[in-house]
Amino acid sequence: MAIYIDKPKCIGCKMCIPACPYGAIDMVDDKAEFNENCTSCGACAYACPTGAIVLEMAGKGEVDTSEYEGLWVVGEINDGRMAMVTAELIGEGRRLAEKRDTDVSCVLMGHEIGHLADRAAGYGADRVFLVDHPALKRYRTQPFTDVLTGLINRNKPEIVLIGATSMGRDLASRVAARIKAGLTADCTELSINDETGLLEQTRPAFGGNVMATILCEFTRPQMATVRPKVMKPLEFDDSREAEVIEVPVEINEKSIATKILEVVKDESGSDVNLTEADIIVSGGRGLGDPKHFALIEELADTIGGAVGASRATVDAGWIPATHQVGQTGKTVHPKLYIACGISGAVQHLAGMSSSDVIVAINKDPDAPIFNVAHYGIVGDLFEVVPAMIEAIKQRRGDTA
Amino acid sequence: MNIIVCIKQVPDTSEVSIDPETNTIVREGVPAIINPFDENAIEQAVQMVEEHGGKVTVLSMGPPQAEAALREALAMGADEAILVSDRCFAASDTLATSYVLSTAIREIGDYDLIFCGKQAFDGDTAQVPPGIAEHLGIPQVTFAIGIEVDGRKVRVRRLLEDEFETVEVKMPALISVVKQINEPRRPGIKAKLAAKKKEVKVWDASCIDADACLCGFDGSPTRVVRTFAPSRNTEGKKYEGEPKEVATAVVEALIAEKII
Amino acid sequence: MDFNFTEDEQMIIDAVHEIGQEEFEPRASEVAELGEFPWENIEILREMDLFGIPVPEEYGGLEMGFLLWGVVGELLSRYCSTTGSVFGAHMLCQYPIMAFGTDEQKDKYLRPLTSGEHIGAFGLTEPNAGSDAGSVATKAELRGDKYILNGTKIFISNGGVAETYVVIANLDPSKGTRGLTAFIVEKGMPGFEFGKNEKKMGWDALPNRELIFQDCEVPVENVLYKPGRGFRVAMDTLGVGRLGMAVGAVGLAQAAFDAAIVYAQQREQFGQKISEFQAIQFKLADMATEIEISRLMYQKAAWLKDQGESFEKEAAMAKLYSSEMVSRVTSDAVQIHGGVGYTREFPVERYMREAKLFEIVEGTSEIQRGIIANRLLREYRI
Q1: Does residue B59 contact residue B101 with C-beta atoms inside 8 Å?
Q2: Lowest mean per-residue pLDDT among A1-10, A142-151, C202-211, C239-248
Q3: Can you name the residues that pair with C182 across neighbouring β-strands?
Q4: Are residues A21 and A129 in the same domain?
Q5: How many separate domains does chain A show?
């Protein structure tokens, strides 16, 4: 990708200057001019009212793929903490990087996040790009896209991995579209082809009915978002060290199109972040009544899990939408998924069938949920679930 | 207020299967539907235009059969429908698709907002909406669960992992919506009959001045090299009988496997 | 003769199939078991503009005739018998207003019935006037610009949930049928109350209530057609009612057949699917044949109606045959299911209970035979 200024079109309005996160535009004779800081991130092109700044895209096969090297993980930071998915991707990234004989870098964008460099290192990153700026305090598409695009253009990584979270999907799509790179969504398996060295990205499609393996042969970097909880992080080791590169940026708040007005935690309070949960207990239509979710909560509390729900119960208004598991809700990958009174419509299975262990409790022995369950209990959940709670408590009592 | 809604016709995924012999998707006899998330986008646009005036234009890229999805959208209350269809669009990945749709949107020209469903039911990528926004150089707000218009500003409530985020953005902007934003209306027979009589414009690559190098296979950096059926767990054990006994047996097994 | 539906008709039929399978069928047993009026389903019919199939476009209808109305009604009854019956009973109010109402009456009453904003009901039956309409004892008395109604109607389908009622009362019981007069009565008119909802053998979700008129004041402009000409209104309405009964019976029988043929291919006895036994096969063949006969009969009657021809005899024949057919077919469906067919785990026992109603309402089989014979003797008068 290249960027240039069509000088006759430039009217010297200077609107590009605050838009540039890298301080790379100077005014020379009332015309904009790039200095050596330019990363070709393209932020200025969008700010230019006259179309004087032109982003030129390389066509298929025009990218010199040999220029690109290294595997990057784009970190996700929530409330000053590094998301688990970032650690998972660093772990997976190490495995892939070894096959490519290269190293793993982690990009951390945020504000007052210096302490996280050690986290990334401890999970196995060789290098950390630290971009610290007040405007990056909370994720927003535009500044994150501008900064990340700039970093990619300047450093040319071969592979970029991002968690397939709300943030990751929003950011990766925008960046990939800007740099015209191939991007594969929500991968559940990654590998390096022995012969071609290409990243093989495997993901479910058609509601989980089909797995597809996807390649990006001609463009770089090869980008993928990866489903949280699928990849395994390395054991955290604080003796690991990483090279930390602090990247200075200049971001002008005024040039950012979106303003965050308010952030509200899900009102249902409890540990509802299903995508991060190790154990999920879900309730379906078989509960018969919204008040019976109390039973689901009790089981979840007993084993330290989060509460999930089928679409039918959410549609019926029994439980807030944030609990919904499935294609129209959340895709989850816990270690243990307990489905209570859920028949297992395809849309639901698409969201949870990759869980490590699935327990299903349903009255109907032919319910499709039993096709994916490792432990299927045919029975009345109002009898089985209390019995399970009892059994777990008893075991606890025994060992205590 | 003019709203463009980008929609996709998708196979009903609940009826899709894979041929174990050929490892290809069996599409025969699978009904084509409007991507369910897009129905929410249409509903949202129609509601907002009902409230604020203006018009809703639905836009889809696809084969000629995709016209049916656009007619359905017209029946739901959209005012105009455009199908961009050209052989050279075939095999477009998300990048090429967003490019084609963005050129069509430029051709339509006059818009305040662009709505999309958060993702398509067949691909589940959620990559096209940001791609369109990027190609048009306008801001995007993804995963909207509520939209409020205030003059030229839009306040959007986003549904994130465990929180709701409200952002404000100026028009024009692209917004992708989640299922929970509304309940799409069921078009009545009268609306369907009226929609049958409306025109669905069909534009090919030349109508929208799309660069063939950026469309279809040539414009797609990603390539699907293999599809296969997911390995389903077939070794599941089924427990039937006295609830106490089976519950204890499963709990014991989970403890033995160190799962709990 | 053309058995093809137009593209528009087919689109509607497909839409009803889809909604029936997705929304009605899964809840049908629950609706019947709980005995709660299926408002959700009615709302869907409303959204889909299905309450106005034969009504002129002028009043918000689709103007697509009784044949399509029948086909749609059959599908509704197939996927949820209760919903089908509400749909049918609604027409018994809509039709007389459409056929006999003044422009003002149509504007005021037909329009909201057609949009589905209002549900309709038809009040004829009384404790001593079932098949014998001439014995209607509900009295109407003209006082100034109002009629005063006194009396009680029973078994009124949609009673209580309906906003609009076409009620048959007698101006002069001594005149028998010549005193009958049809009135449009609104829910909430002073002196109009609802009595008990009957507990029945089936159809728990379908209201069959008493309508109680105690010095109920109905404005003169609410007389439908002419004073003293209510018998004509009632008879014409019952003609459509018989058609509706045939439609409902075919739908219910089809539902029973659907269940039976699926079960027969799942259930194994003596090492094979029971569908491989000839005894079961013949039963299935007979069931399907009888259903098909009944379907053709109601479709022919509806087609005649749409052509503006006399259809009363054909409607009575369709009602007679299909009401007896549905008892046989649903009973056979239970038989094919065996023991589980008798349990409430499967819907076929309900179908069997519901089926019996068709032989009783809108004129018993005996009355139908009388109507048919009457017409025949007129046609073949020597």
Answers
A1: yes
A2: A1-10
A3: C168, C224
A4: no
A5: 3
In terms of domains, do A186 and A153 share one?
Answer: yes
Mean pLDDT of chain A: 90
Looking at the structure, do residues A169 and A305 belong to the same domain, yes or no? no
For residue A228, give the amino acid letter. Answer: P
ipTM of this predicted structure: 0.92
* CATH number of residue A147's parent domain: 3.40.50.620
Q: How far is CA C145 from CA A331, C128, C230, in A?
A: 69, 29, 19
Active-site residue set of C = 362
Cβ distance A169 to B142 less than 8 Å, yes or no, reads: yes
> Helices C25-34 and C348-358, interaxial angle, to 10°?
70
Give domain status of residue A258, yes or no: no
Question: Does B have 3 or more CB contacts under 8 Å with A?
Answer: yes
Give yes or no for B189 touching C (CB within 8 A).
yes
Helix (H, G, I), strand (E, B) or coil at C14: helix
Q: How confident is the model at residue C111 (pLDDT cuts 50, 70, 90)?
A: very high
Contact criterion met (CB < 8 Å) for A264 and B251: no
Taking CB atoms and an 8 Å cutoff, what residues of chain C touch B191?
A: 49
What span, in angstroms and rounded, lies between the C-alpha atoms of A298 and A232?
29
Does some domain include residue A263? no
Together in a domain, A86 and A136: yes
Which chains would you list as touching A if contact means 3+ CB atom pairs under 8 Å? B
CA angle at B87 for the pair B86 and B89, rounded to the nearest 5° = 70
Q: Which two tokens stand for residue B113?
A: 């907002």
The CATH number covering residue A349 comes to: 3.40.50.1220
Q: pTM score, two decimals?
A: 0.84
Last residue of a domain, one of A13, A34, A56: A56
- Which residues of chain B make contact with C62, given a CB cutoff of 8 A? 189-190, 193
Examine the domain organization and report whether A192 and A97 are in the same domain. Answer: yes
The band of C83, judged by pLDDT with boundaries at 50, 70 and 90, is: very high
The boundaries of the domain holding residue A364 are 274-399
The answer to whether the Cβ–Cβ distance between B186 and C50 falls below 8 Å is no
At residue A347 the predicted structure's pLDDT band, cuts being 50, 70 and 90, is: confident
B196 contacts C49? CB cut-off 8 A: no
pLDDT average, residue stretch A68-86? 95
In a domain, A265, yes or no: no
> CB-based contact (8 Å) between B184 and chain A?
no
Task: Give all domains of chain B, ordered by start, each with its CATH number.
Answer: 2-214 (3.40.50.620)
Quickly tell me which residue has 């500003």 as its tokens.
B153
Mutate to test the interface with B, among C16, C41, C47 (most CBs of B within 10 A): C47
